[in-house]
Amino acid sequence: MEEEAIFKTESLSKSFGKKKVLNNISLNIPKGSYFGIIGLSGSGKTTLMNILIGYWKQSSGKVFFDGKQLKFSKTRLHENIGFATQSISVYPLLTAKENLAYFGRLYGMKDESIRKRTTAILDLMDLTDAENLLAKELSTGMIRRLDIACSLIHNPKVLFLDEPTEDLDPVLRKEMLALIKKINDQGKTIIMASHMLDEVEVVCSRIAIIHNGEIIECGSPDELKGKYSKNEEIHLISSPGNYVSILKKMGKMDISNIVLKRNKVVLYTPKAEKVLKRLLGIIEGNKERIVSLKVHKPTMEEVFEYITKRH
Q: pTM of the predicted model, to two decimals?
């Protein structure tokens, strides 16, 4: 059964002069999902997002928001979406609270609504203690959180994020992703464009791969990995490392491929749990000591490289 879509496109295309940037894109983005859009630089990610938020008009095709086709009036759309771009949009000489009030007024909110929403959003974004600090005095992580807070001030249904962890260190990236997941858990649809494939793999419930202006694959991380390979990899390093003996006893059942390296063996199998259980029994019988044993699934980076090269 198809999930209810918050955004839907039908045969969407966009050209700038003679250059076609998006070509015949048909896409469903489910309500409440954490939806990732990934692609190489220049593949059309940002163009697609700019059309969905109503900033640009498509050259052909249709866009639907919450079941209704978007035509010329974008008022209903703008009331229900927030957008945090790669470039920080907050004003450095306004305090955190003043920035939120300013953006609230841009959305047509009344002062009382702004006041109540500001309290809630500062708490959500862990910025309560910084409400009276000038934006220019905030740390990199805090100013990125304030930028997202400003896009949420009017309590939209959908939050668009363009490279939200760009230029953040690993600790701040992890904190930012946890915060975005928290926003998603409150029922908001998150649509995120990113080239950080390891992040997208962990947080997104669905991922669209865009390549040369076309959506070439779309699905959950596990679905996309399944198209790349049905196998998992078992990496074994043991001591004294009598791998030939171990492999003879393993046989070929449920093993697609074996790679014997200088100090380890790698087994490729669609039934990792079953093969691993047999492997551990043989290791114990051979009186081998396990130095390292890992089960490795294809990463999103490997999947992305495989799928884009195939096209």
A: 0.83
